């Protein structure tokens, strides 16, 4: 496990949620997105749902989901070693049970691949750093006083990539699949086996609509029997073209 600061236990929001986090401003951003705007709480789930969290980061969604559905079983994926360490620490901090952490990226092919980690913006870490150029440009225009270059200073890693089908094979049913993978959304979906789709009831994804990505994702999900709704991502500048896609299995 990576060495982390001794004073990285933060208190977030009015309800004083405690969480270990490497970067305070990003943890506060995620707290507002998940707990205040409730962008992922748009589905009615069973009392004991099975939730798959692809791109779990430091665990704010995991903590939120266990508060909403205390008996939920959660399968959480996070490929960046240091970020996964924080995820595990936060699961322990909150005494969460029924959560399994997998330290892998999820994609279309089984491989080891290069991954860019931003230590000062770890939630933006990605397999596709070229897609961050628009975001960096918008942030630089909006905040000319910030040292944006330092915020996006990269570290280069090699991470394992596995198809999601290998992890879903033991799950009889998935009530909700949440995907936040910074440009790899299509690869996640394409890594699900044909005979596994009927087990999935709901999907929520954050998608930056570059390269026609949103249209491809929507077409894939609708072909699998989902009704799709697209909303602006509540905490992201509109010029960055980032949206929430909510997909529910049709009647």
TrEMBL record:
Keywords: Methyltransferase, Transferase
One Pfam family from the record: Methyltransf_21
Transmembrane segments: none
GO molecular function, one term: methyltransferase activity
Record's keyword annotation contains Methyltransferase: yes
GO BP annotation list: methylation
InterPro entries in UniProt: FkbM_mtfrase (IPR006342), SAM-dependent_MTase (IPR052514), SAM-dependent_MTases_sf (IPR029063)
Keyword Transferase: yes
Domain Methyltransferase FkbM: 53-228
Lineage top rank: taxon: Bacteria
Official protein name in the record: FkbM family methyltransferase
UniProt source species: Microbispora bryophytorum subsp. camponoti
